[in-house]
Amino acid sequence: MKAELIHQARALGFDCIGVTDPEATADAGRHFREFLDAGAHGDMAWLAANPERRTDPRVLWPGVRSVIMLGVNYGPDENPLAILAQRSRGAISVYAQGDDYHDLIKKRLKVLARWLVAASGCEVKVFVDTAAVMEKPLSLAAGLGWQGKHTNLVSREFGSWLFLGAIFYQCGAAAR
To answer: Per the residue annotation, which of 43, 99, 100, 129 is the catalytic one?
Structure first.
């Protein structure tokens, strides 16, 4: 099943995929709570509201058994810093130059999720920066890369040029 999942994900344009346990964010959750307790979130009160939703995927969906993390490389073909030599032109961040990545990734996630439901008979939920999901720690746990000092996920193959998405997977008695 995992090999076919990888095949289907690659066919949809996902460049990397990994699977992890929903408990994989426990350390990141502890660090996040310490961050909040220290007041490091400043005026972003929304960040401190209901931190359990952010730190534990099972709060978002109690029956989740696995989290499938996926990445799409958005690295440019040309050197993105070349524009800086042209003082008469503005530089736009690479991730903002194309279509909205939320729409791009969510469509692909939904197609993959429908395939997964049909193939397994289980239930899924998809997320792409649309809920309080700790995408970077989950991606780390799923083997997509590591979290750099700049807090971005860094992939050995793609650097920090990845859009991330998640599929929460629930199968068995809890799914019924």
So the answer is: 129
Full set of structural domains in the chain with CATH? 2-24+56-175 (3.40.109)
0.70 cut: is pTM over it? yes
Q: Is 129 a catalytic residue?
A: yes
d(CA 144, CA 53): 23
**pLDDT tens-digit map of 162-173:** 999 999 999 865
Instruction: Give per-residue pLDDT as tens, 113-129.
Output: 999 999 999 999 999 98
Pick from 40, 7, 18: which is nearest to 115 by CA? 7
CA-CA distance, 142 to 35, in Å (whole number)?
A: 24
DSSP string, 28-90: HHHHHHHHHHTTTTTT-HHHHSSHHHHH-HHHH-TT--EEEEEEEE---SS-TTGGGG-TTS-
